Task: structure prediction
Amino acid sequence: MKFSEYIQYDGLGLAQLVKNKEVHASELLRVALERTDKTNSKLNAVIIPMYEQAKQRTQQQSSGLFAGVPFLVKDLFQEYQGVPTSYGSNALKKINYTPDFNAEIVNRWEKTGIITFGRTNVPEFGIKGITEPDAWGSCHNPWNLKHNSGGSSGGSGSAVAGGLVPIAGASDGGGSIRIPASYCGLFGLKPSRGRTPWGPQYSEAMHGAAMQHVLSKTVRDSAAMLDAVQGPEQTSLFRIEAPQQDYLDVIQHAPKKLRIAFNTQSPIGTKVSKDAIQAVQQTAKLLESLGHIVIEDQPHINGLALAKDFVTTWFSQFSYMRAQIKQMSGATDRDFELDSVALAAFGAKTTATEYIHTLNNWGLYNTQMNIFFEKYDLYLTPTTASVAPQNGEIATPTWQKPILKGLLKVGKAHYLAQGKLVEKVVQENLCWVPFTQLANITGLPAMSVPLYWNKNGLPLGSQFIAPFGREDRLLQLAAQLEQAQPWTPQYKNIQL
Result:
């Protein structure tokens, strides 16, 4: 098989070829590795190879929906036993940290028959919406190598859009599936709280805000993989109701006539680009042409307050995780990025009372979304406030670094997060991606659909949020949009 043939198929399509004995899994892996060898020096998507393991697996009998399909996992909470993982950090990279277990999500992917040949680039501990870790360097966007692929599943986004694999592991705690999907022109679904597993390490991640799934080129690949991995496990804290039928079957039928609210204003009062506004307006017109009712409206939620509550929880959780890693690895502050040390310092100063207050607020946001969904079936926004930023564009300002270092040295870095400054921290950190955190905090399913490319050929996704547990509604609509305005022809414009 040639790459020109390989690139024409999605994951299910390649698996069908293997099943029909038209191609062998080893042949698919050869093409994927050749593509990786040719392009990864430009993309920096795959950081930890698993080539020998993958070659061995192609010689084993396997069954499942994705049997024989090349696959990549994210280098964060998607552990393979005996394979080093870094979480995007020098702290773990330096000690060659090698887990002695498989993550449950990995076990479930393996049962589908995928052939995993590497781990993908991530920002340090997944704490940013861009992938530029000191440990591995910037991940580049296949549509324009000067731009970033987003984060935290940036390496996976870059690898799928770049044609290395048709589908790759991802996760989403604040937009980390949807942001790379938006920037890389892919389909990305964040499932509802509890839909996919987090064991054996955790019962759930960040109170259910973070979820595991994939990035893909087609809706059906995402639907099929969700069928394969969804459902509770022994460690599950929260057990979500099982879907009434397979998602792969659901998408064979058009959705009912939907009432969809849309909004293009940033919930935190920051600028939204003309591209983002245009992307949603075009999507709204497409929805209307398909018979859906589209109304400009938004939930009664203070977006800036929600963003503050999100970062308070995020920084506190990260502070705890960093302390655990320091204890396990013997790492010092020098082994972590300056931004990470500062965010952990903010988080460490959050009191128990503040933290509980924040979590109570999460419940209030849930209530508001439940009320909102009594009127509407879905909520539409831009996925991101603009197309992908250039590499280095969102780096910590040079003037800030000595101030941060000085405050950290005297144990006062948390002062930066006091009073009005916290609003500045929130707005500066989230101005590129102000729309995604709502679905994480509320545990609602959300997706980014690639329906818009700007005049420079850069994509920007449309985000849809659904009521709790209604992944079926999202996938059904996504399949309808994919049929009405196919996006796979766009991928031929990627030249690497």
